[in-house]
Design a protein that fits this description.
The protein is an alpha+beta fold and 419 residues long. It contains 18 helices and 11 strands. It has a domain of 255 residues: Orthogonal Bundle (Cytochrome p450). Bound molecules: protoporphyrin IX containing FE.
Amino acid sequence: MTTPPPGCPAHMAAGPVPLSAITASASLPDTYRWLREKSGPVARVELEPGVNAWLVMGHAELLELTRNERVFSRDSRNWGDYRNGVVSPHSGLGPMMFYRDNVTGADGMEHRRLRRPLDDALAAVDQRQMRRAVERTCQDLITAFRHRGHADLVSEYARIIPLLALAHASGLNPEEGHNLLEALAALFGSAQDSQEGNRRFEEILARLIRARQANSAQDLASSLVQHTDLRSDDEKLQSLVVLISAGQQTLSAWISRALYLMLTDSRFENRLRGGRLGVDEALDEVLWRDPPMTHMPARYALIDTHLGNQAITRGDALILGLAATNTDPRIHIDGAEPEIGNRSHVGFSTGPHQCPARTPARLIARIAIEQALYGLPRIALAVPAQDVVAEPSPWTRHLASLPVTFTTTTSTAPSSSIR
Ligand code: HEM
């Protein structure tokens, strides 16, 4: 067996490696390589002290995990450690892992019934209208900081765009979109603010559902209201809540990472002066090398079984190692150059629960990046590249901030002309 690479979490762990240490490791590919050599394509990891799970890193094993719903459930009420009280109801794992009564916690036919309305609503999004709205949102945000000559493109830009874009696509006007943004900020604040934020968030969306029941329009809320697969007002509301909230962190991380790549890697920087690789290639490279969900929770074994030579016990939690699967040597030959046009990564997961929003997500991300790169003249990173770090988490490697400088100007970014 090889020695763990420098910066690898193996240096600190005697038992199963903590998942958050893997996420924070200096080199994900080196850490996954070491873990694979040690355990094969499915490895034991620690979620929090005393709570373990399996990290699935092999492509074939990920397909089996996500597609075989008779063996692996999305419903965390099947999680043995939760049922047996090993995981506290107040655990920090709760927001990502505890059961939710919506599409994300359902299996089989019930999942398909709740999922179809989301697929249909997203397919009906008017892309031209979305493009114009996102461009306007980005330009408004840029106008607010352009006079300063510096900004944090995470907190002042990438974190705000997904919510405003999805609020608009849902049918909210700009003022309601900003109210929703404030409610979301409170939701992630203190415990007391969080409850109030959640109440306001749902209240704004419930009002929108009622308005669309009275008068239909061409938006996500109207599609959900009209969908015959949704049986109650609450199912319509929860479907809208999940559509608006599921893309927040992921989309914001995708925009920030791709901007970082384009500002730090000369293959992309040159594009601004007519070079070869552009925004879509940057977005693809991020999905291969640093997908927004590094580790996606979870599936729960319904029976004793085997996966990747490991004996899995009924009730075990299995984490989707999306970043790891992308480096599976059985499907991917790593090289310095990205594989242009190859989108066979698992950044959006796979199987029935895979992300339904690839197309609108890419549209929003592409516009956000174009507007920043072309709307902020001489944009450059304000700190050394290695000082841009991720927030600690077992699940994601979201950039904590992306400080940039640019020259001040009063002109606006071009609309709809950059491809
Ligand atoms: C417009 C923005 C987005 C929206 C509205 C959205 C919506 C959703 C929804 C509703 C689900 C749950 C689907 C189900 O359980 O059947 C989901 C799952 C997921 N999404 Fe997205 N998403 C967005 C952006 C993204 C982005 C940018 C990424 C990363 C590149 C992403 C990655 C995922 C992953 C990994 C899952 C989990 C799949 C699984 O459990 O197997 N999403 N998304």
